[in-house]
């Protein structure tokens, strides 16, 4: 009792194979287990009827089936926000958005965050720990069960900095991408980072083609230093070199996220500077109307200003979209729901 067993949902196919070999079992059982977990979705080893009693015993003695629990659910047009309680009592969030192309789930990667972006609610609450791969996978499973539908896209853009929890992030991607399991295509998975440069290089070399989004939010170091402390460690020039390498190795288009903050980064000058910075890159810019939050004094840029900014990027031949607003009424900004619970 009291011994914390590893969650079965945190095991990649390779982890399972290794476990089986170590326990004198056949390697091919791994794909059968994955099938029970992610295709048939059973919730106990006892139900895995093509496994021997002995193997079921071994699995039961080594892994837990514990889900994370939904504590609260908020709803707005096309958006659902879930607050989860983890086994150790910590809280995290996930946001489900219905799009015309399917539904995407924004998952958390850490409890709290140490990146300290000035505008971000998650960053006000320091990191407690990274999520295990099982806790990340469970967010998807739990919500699919709740809504009785499959999730078509996953974005790692909830609470936390995924590249500050790199190994668990990669395991998570392997598990959801496994073709005889959840089978979410790598092109349907997006990881968003504030710009931890060495990890961008590592990420570029991965064998699977996952989308990368960069939280840029400023066209120069002067502004970025003020709102994102990470920029002092990895300034824009180094960030852009890493992004270029990612594009070169993967041939994939990078997304730059740009929160529109009133009088901080939303001037015509800033738009021109941004266009200059990104010229010639295989990328697109996602302009995000800032979600104001009660504990932080930044304001959302004026609508007019966002449109002007957009027009300039267009004119400069930079691909750009303005993010449709999701969940304005339900504290869907990163970390807001958790922040209300944790004081
Ligand atoms: N740490 C990662 C992923 C989590 S944040 C990253 O920085 O990318 C997900 C995105 O939401 C980031 O682009 C972040 O800057 C943005 N964000 C944070 N607070 C926000 C707010 N109040 N309104 C709009 N976007 C916000």
Q: Which spans of ≥5 residues are poorly predicted at pLDDT below 50? A: none
Mean pLDDT: 93
Strand and helix order: EHHHEEEEEEEHEHEHEHHHEHEHEH
Class of the largest domain, according to the CATH hierarchy?
A: Alpha Beta
Domain module tally = 2
Radius of gyration: 21 Å
Q: In CATH, what is the homologous superfamily of the largest domain?
A: Aldolase class I
Description:
This protein is α/β, with parallel strands linked by helices. It has two domains: 6-64, DNA polymerase, domain 1 (Orthogonal Bundle); 68-338, TIM Barrel. It is built from twelve helices and 14 strands. The strands form three sheets. Strands 3-4-5-6-9-10-11-12-13-14 form a ten-stranded mixed sheet. Strands 1-2 form a two-stranded parallel sheet. Helix 1 crosses helix 2 (29-39), helix 6 (197-204) runs parallel beside helix 9 and helix 10 packs parallel to helix 11 (303-315). It is elongated and about 70 Å long. The protein starts with 5 loop residues before the first strand and ends with a helix. The chain binds S-adenosyl-L-homocysteine.
Quick structural summary:
By secondary structure, this protein is of the alpha/beta class. The chain has helices at 13-22, 29-39, 53-62, 133-147, 166-177, 197-204, 221-227, 230-233, 236-250, 268-278, 303-315, 336-341; strands at 6-7, 63-64, 69-76, 79-85, 91-99, 102-106, 110-111, 129-130, 153-156, 189-193, 211-215, 254-260, 283-289, 319-322.
């Amino acid at each position: 009792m009291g011994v914390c067993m590893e969650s079965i949902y945190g095991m990649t196919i390779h982890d399972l194979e290794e476990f089986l070999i170590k326990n004198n079992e056949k390697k091919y059982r791994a794909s059968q287990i994955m099938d029970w977990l992610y295709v048939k979705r059973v919730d106990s080893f006892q139900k895995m009827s093509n496994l021997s009693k002995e193997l079921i015993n071994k699995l039961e003695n080594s892994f837990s089936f514990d889900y994370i629990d939904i504590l609260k659910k908020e709803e707005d047009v096309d958006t659902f926000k879930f607050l989860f309680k983890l086994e150790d009592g910590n809280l995290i969030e996930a946001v489900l958005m219905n799009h015309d192309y399917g539904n995407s789930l924004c998952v958390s990667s850490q409890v709290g965050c140490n990146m300290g972006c000035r505008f971000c609610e998650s960053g006000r609450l320091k990191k407690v720990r990274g999520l295990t791969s099982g806790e990340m996978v469970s967010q998807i499973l739990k919500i699919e069960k709740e809504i009785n539908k499959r999730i078509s896209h996953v974005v790692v853009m909830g609470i936390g900095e995924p590249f500050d929890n790199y190994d668990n992030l990669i395991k998570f991607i392997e598990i959801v991408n496994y073709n005889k399991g959840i089978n979410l295509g790598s092109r349907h998975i997006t990881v968003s980072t504030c710009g931890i440069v060495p990890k961008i290089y590592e990420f570029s070399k991965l064998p699977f083609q996952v989308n990368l989004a960069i939280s840029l939010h400023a066209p120069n170091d002067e502004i970025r230093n003020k709102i994102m402390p990470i920029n002092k460690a990895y300034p824009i020039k180094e960030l852009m070199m890493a992004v270029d390498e990612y594009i070169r190795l993967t041939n994939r288009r990078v997304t730059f996220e740009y929160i529109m903050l009133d009088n901080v980064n939303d001037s015509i000058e800033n738009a021109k500077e941004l266009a200059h910075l990104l010229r010639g890159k295989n990328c697109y810019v996602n302009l995000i109307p800032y979600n104001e939050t009660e504990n932080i004094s930044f304001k959302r840029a004026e609508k007019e200003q966002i449109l002007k900014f957009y027009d300039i990027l267009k004119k400069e031949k930079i691909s750009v979209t303005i993010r449709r607003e999701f969940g304005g009424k339900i504290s869907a900004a990163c970390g807001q729901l958790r922040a209300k619970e944790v004081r």
